[in-house]
Amino acid sequence: MDLTKPARNLTLSGAMAVLNAAIAEAERMERPMCISVVDLGGNLLSFARMDGSKALSVLSSRAKAVTAALSGTPTGGAHADVELQIALASEGRWTNLIGGLPILVEGMVVGAVGAGSGTGAEDLQVARAGVAAIPGASPFEDFVPMGAEDTGIIRGQTPR
Fold it and tell me: Is 59 exposed, middle or buried (0-12, 13-18, 19+ CB in 10 A)?
């Protein structure tokens, strides 16, 4: 029986590449963002708050990155009817806000990026640009958000 397993972790240089690529996309979009990059354990490696971004997005961008790293899935993928329960069960350490992506290389989570200050779709676009800075990382092109944000879902109702 194996008592250990292989792991890969994002380096500071990798985190800076992710951060710089995400900033470049936010600048191209003319949408100032807060961007957080974490390692596979959810520990902050790099962060930027662009001039003009929302102050509360400092917190939400980090929460998105931590959630994506620890869950190994993009944020915003839980149905709106369960997002509050999951947040409560995790003592507020989990968010369903759109814009957090794990950085998956060869099927292993090496870190994550979270972007905030725009709409969910804008945040996701900036996060995808950051992930693209890591060769071989999954861009999650087929990811479809299911949370209430930007989807038109009203709690307890089926979307039309």
Answer: middle
CB contact burial 67-84 (16+ within 10 A = b; e otherwise): bbbbbebbbbbbebeebe
C-alpha to C-alpha distance for 91 and 89, rounded to whole angstroms: 5
| Rounded-to-10 torsion of CA 129, 138, 142, 158 | -90
Distance CA 30, CA 132 (A): 19
Domains of the chain: 12-131 (3.30.450.150)
pLDDT digits (tens, 9 = 90+) for 97-129: 999 999 999 999 999 999 999 999 999 999 999
CB 79 within 8 A of CB 159: no
